[in-house]
Amino acid sequence: MGISFTVLSSGSTGNATVVRNEDTTLLIDAGLSAKRIDELLKERDLSGEELDGILVTHEHSDHVKGLGAMARKYNLPIYANEKTWFAISNAVGQIADDNRRILETGATREFESLRVESFGISHDAAEPVGYSFYDGAEKLSVATDLGYVSDKVKQAISDADVLVLESNHDVEMLRMGRYPWNIKRRILSDIGHLSNEMAGAILSELLTGRTKRTYLAHLSRDHNMMELAKLTVRGAMEDRGCFYKDSEFRLCDTYYDRPTPWDKVSES
């Protein structure tokens, strides 16, 4: 079967992704209400009973809003590093001791035949992380909410068959937008969010022939549009000498209000 995934929702209003293989199904973040997550799961012919656990990237509400409710409703273990656990403790409410699991930054954990590797990222949170998933030779990496991509992050997500990467904002739209300057400065900082241009620059370094698809994620509803993001990312790649055919590599959409279709990592 290999790795399959669906991005249930992506953006500042809520984030959740499902990754599964033949014997494990994991939810990455639960940034919407439990009711909404259940609705999105149903759209992809899944139910909460089929989940084996929840991986947390960081404590911001658009990633943990429904975390406690989902864990209690389906008796699910939650995996996060110690600093993130400390940061979310009040927000998630009562969680059974057996379901409080520690997955430290940089650690690897095996869920049956699905291997999960955590890696640190740069964001204004206690200890934010991304995740890479492995099943045999297949690799899926998820990296959003990062102000910049360090060499360690590049190493962690390099050679992924499929990558879910933040492409949060168009810089000029953000600069001209309605946000106060202190929020704009935070988003543009090294602990903020990745712009379209920066996403393209990173992809130009990472694209070695193995990565077949990149899902552009966590787009701002106020300061970005999917078609603009794809156009800017592709332009930034070409400016750096990275040209590709659509048959070799594709930029894919994510949505804030509906899930992406199931995608099998092994498919070309």
| Radius of gyration, in angstroms, nearest whole number | 17 Å
Portion in helices: 25-40%
Largest beta-sheet details: 7 strands, mixed
- Residue fraction in strands: 15-25%
Total count of strands: 14
State the strand order across the main sheet. Answer: 6-5-4-3-2-1-14
Function: Counteracts the endogenous Pycsar antiviral defense system. Phosphodiesterase that enables metal-dependent hydrolysis of host cyclic nucleotide Pycsar defense signals such as cCMP and cUMP.
Protein name: Phosphoribosyl 1,2-cyclic phosphodiesterase
Organism: Paenibacillus peoriae
InterPro entries: Metallo-B-lactamas, RibonucZ/Hydroxyglut_hydro, WalJ/YycJ-like
Q: What does this 3D model show about the protein?
A:
The longest helix is centred in the C-terminal third of the chain and has 14 residues, at 226-239. The chain is globular, with a radius of gyration of 17 Å. The mean pLDDT is 96. It is 29% helix and 24% strand. Helix 8 (196-206) crosses helix 9 (226-239). It has a 7-stranded mixed beta sheet. The chain starts with a strand and ends with a strand. By secondary structure, the chain is an alpha/beta fold. Residues 13-191 form the Metallo-beta-lactamase domain. InterPro entries: Metallo-B-lactamas, RibonucZ/Hydroxyglut_hydro, WalJ/YycJ-like.
Q: How would you concisely characterize the structure shown here?
A:
With 268 residues, this protein is α/β, with parallel strands linked by helices. The chain has helices at 34-43, 61-64, 67-74, 82-92, 151-157, 171-176, 181-188, 196-206, 226-239; strands at residues 4-9, 16-20, 25-28, 53-55, 78-80, 100-102, 108-111, 114-120, 129-135, 138-143, 162-166, 213-217, 250-252, 263-264.
